[in-house]
Design goal:
The protein is an alpha+beta fold. The protein contains 8 helices and 7 strands. The strands form 2 sheets. Strands 2-1-5-4-3 form a 5-stranded antiparallel sheet, sandwiched between helices.
């Protein structure tokens, strides 16, 4: 009775998460699956439980996932893997987080894999990358120096476009590594006013 009550409590707890959680054995077979809503599963439970990662996901993708499973079981170190949905036409992204299952402080021969929908995060990252590429394209083509610096004691540089070398004779890398500072280039009489 106590075991059944404990399992029911665990099922209720894990199923309340937005994520999907799998328990997988040392042969790579699905032992358990928890999901708030079965519609979130990419296949019906009957096509998942008792099958291997390769059975469910196909040879190529299943092998990638199984390689991570083996590594986690060998090292006992958790790992994450981001991937695009395997459903044709879907633009959703997921993160699979693998972790060992421990009992009495010792690793078992089972792992959990928690699947989290990271589509919003990936969309934000893509927009950020495009925005940065646009910024770099713009700054690299301006006929002048563009720079971004910290408001610290040395006004250390975060970014400079390549035109800095034409203007100063020093490469951008020399400013970024603080081998050269803009203050070194100012006339001493102008330094305070510029600051």
């Amino acid at each position: 009775q106590q075991v059944k009550k404990s399992e029911a409590h665990l099922n209720a707890l894990v199923s309340s998460l937005d994520d999907i959680v799998f328990e997988i054995d040392d042969d790579g077979r699905f032992l358990n699956v928890w999901a708030k809503n079965d519609d979130d599963l990419f296949f019906p439970r009957t096509k998942i439980l008792g099958r291997t990662l390769e059975d469910v996901f196909g040879t190529e993708f299943g092998k990638t996932l199984d390689t991570i499973r083996i590594r986690v079981m060998t090292t006992c170190q958790a790992e994450s893997y981001d991937y695009k949905s395997i459903v044709a036409g879907s633009s959703r992204w997921f993160s699979a987080k693998y972790a060992m299952i421990y009992e009495n402080g010792k690793p078992t021969k089972r792992i959990t894999v928690r699947i989290e929908d990271i589509t919003t995060k990936k969309e934000f990252e893509t927009k950020l990358i495009k925005s940065e590429q646009k910024f770099r394209s713009l700054t690299e083509n301006i006929p002048g120096v563009i720079y971004l610096r910290n408001n610290d004691e040395n006004f250390s540089m975060i970014y400079l476009n390549a035109r800095i070398e034409e203007l100063t004779g020093f490469a951008a890398a020399e400013f970024l590594t603080q081998k050269v500072n803009f203050d070194d280039l100012y006339h001493p009489g102008d330094r305070e006013r510029i600051r």
